[in-house]
UniProtKB/TrEMBL annotation:
SUPFAM superfamilies named among the record's database cross-references: ARM repeat
Domain Maestro/Maestro-like HEAT-repeats: 342-440
Record protein name field: Maestro heat like repeat family member 6
Organism: Pelodiscus sinensis
PANTHER family: MAESTRO HEAT-LIKE REPEAT-CONTAINING PROTEIN FAMILY MEMBER 6, MAESTRO-RELATED HEAT DOMAIN-CONTAINING
Keyword vocabulary terms for this entry: Membrane, Repeat, Transmembrane, Transmembrane helix
One Pfam short name: HEAT_Maestro
Cellular component, GO annotation: cytoplasm
Membrane-spanning parts: 166-188
Residue ranges occupied by any Maestro-like HEAT-repeats domain in the UniProt entry: 5-110
Domain of life: Eukaryota
């Protein structure tokens, strides 16, 4: 083992030789030894990667540099986890040499690049430990817990920003997006600890906390642009990046991002839900809150009411409405608003399901929480009224039942007529008229007629 390692380290050091033929000979020797012996050097892989990185900084000959990067790819074929972990440890701050090593892994053979992506995703799912003990300083376990997840977003950004990197996303796409978003949430909730100061780098090169947040946002952009450029443009135009980058507006950014994903990737709603649902039940606070925002955005799609059971949606919104955290109650209201949007859908099964869900939710609320719902209820009154004129008995019944729940919440008597709402709420007149105007373009004659009468 010692002899093999010595041969490899000697070959790596030889890459720095200023005589071109000597550097080329060292490159051939390095490749040959690794191909023959890489199965037997697992414990030495981190040391070898560190040495390759160290010597790469002084290697000028292009073919020698390519040999060094090829050596890392050869090691990754058999020891992916060890190579990824070793590179992550030198990726904050990330110089051009580390970037080239990540790019090389992104250009590697498909099985290798996929395993690298899987390792990075597994690391991204780990919660970074962003606090240090004032007395103990930094330990190796702290570095593993903190620096490696933080460096992962940097590595992903490098890999997906390089046009030559052809790592196929496939099933990884949704997971990478969701966990990058959650990773950003962790970063925004903490202050920068004094930890990102590598032994070989002077303090002016030490990255700031904001740099790491920006890098995570850039990684999100790179992943989106790689998979669907129109999605990245849509999110940029909506201003979601600025919202995502600030703790006060992070959840608003997640909602915009969720809507954009579902708009430009119509087939992804079920995939997003399958990744989000477990986090609603078993995630930590940051994961749950991000998952709630994504789930709320999911309620704006029609397929949600085909895919998800009504009681599942109802259960979450009920629980969120009584949560002590204002942000969670706010998401519950937005979720209800997304449910109410489907009252106007032409597909009668969708509008019927939305009306039933709204009615069930109103019935389930306790008195002290009903005051929060008045705005959403008033937004739902016109669609409920106009849907009473539909030709589908199940839609008419569900809307009529829900309308009675709305009246009860607003404090109306049974004899009060709903068409007096414009008189009682004059400040909402234009909102009511705008909602009715939408129905004038309905392909359903009864809906157009009801809107005209209104």
């Amino acid at each position: 083992m010692a002899t093999i390692t010595s041969q490899i380290l000697a070959a790596v050091a030889g890459l720095r030789d200023t005589v071109k033929i000597n550097a080329q000979a060292a490159a051939v020797m390095l490749t040959s030894v690794l191909k023959e012996q890489r199965n037997n050097i697992k414990e030495k892989v981190p040391e070898i990667v560190d040495i390759i990185y160290f010597h790469l900084q002084a290697t000028q000959e292009d073919s020698a540099r390519q040999a060094a990067m090829g050596a890392v790819c050869l090691l990754a074929e058999k020891h992916t986890q060890e190579v990824v972990s070793a590179l992550l440890r030198v990726s904050l701050p990330c110089d051009s040499h580390v970037s080239q090593l990540w790019e090389a892994l992104g250009r590697a053979k498909k099985p290798v690049s996929l395993r690298v992506l899987a390792e990075l995703l597994a690391m991204l799912k780990r919660r970074p430990c962003l606090e240090t003990s004032e007395t103990s300083g930094l330990s190796s376990s702290f570095e593993d817990a903190s620096i490696l997840p933080l460096a992962t977003s940097r590595a992903l950004c490098i890999i997906f920003s390089n046009k030559e990197c052809l790592v196929p996303m496939g099933a990884f796409y949704v997971s990478v997006l969701i966990f990058l978003i959650i990773h950003l949430h962790y970063l925004l909730q903490k202050h920068m600890p004094v930890l990102l100061k590598p032994k070989k780098v002077s303090s002016p090169a030490t990255p700031l906390w904001g740099d790491i947040c920006c890098c995570t946002v850039e990684a999100l952009k790179a992943v989106m642009k790689r998979e669907k450029y129109s999605l990245m443009q849509s999110v940029s135009l909506a201003g979601a990046w600025d919202l995502l980058s600030m703790p006060e507006t992070y959840l608003e950014g997640v909602l915009l991002l969720a809507r954009a994903i579902l708009k430009h990737h119509r087939s992804l709603d079920f995939a997003v839900f399958t990744k989000v649902a477990p986090l609603l039940h078993h995630g930590d606070d940051k994961q749950k809150l991000t998952a709630m925002a994504l789930f709320t955005g999911l309620l704006s799609t029609e397929s949600t009411y085909v895919t998800l059971k009504k009681q599942y949606i109802l259960g979450h919104l009920k629980n969120w409405h009584v949560d002590p955290r204002p942000a969670v109650r706010w998401l519950a209201l937005l979720g209800l608003g997304n449910v109410a949007l489907h009252l106007q859908k032409e597909r009668h099964k969708i509008s019927c399901a939305a009306a039933k869900l709204l009615g069930d939710l109103l019935r389930a609320l306790s008195g002290k929480h009903k005051s929060f719902m008045q705005e959403q209820v008033l937004n739902s009154m016109v669609p409920l009224l106009l849907n009473l004129q539909q030709q589908h008995p199940d839609v008419i019944k569900s809307c009529a039942d829900t309308l009675q729940e709305c009246k009860a919440l607003l404090g109306w008597t049974l004899n009060d007529k709903s068409f007096f709402q414009a008189e009682w709420y004059p400040e909402r007149l234009w909102s009511f008229l705008h909602q009715a105007q939408e129905y004038l373009r309905s392909p359903c004659a009864s809906s157009r007629r009801a809107a005209s009468i209104f």
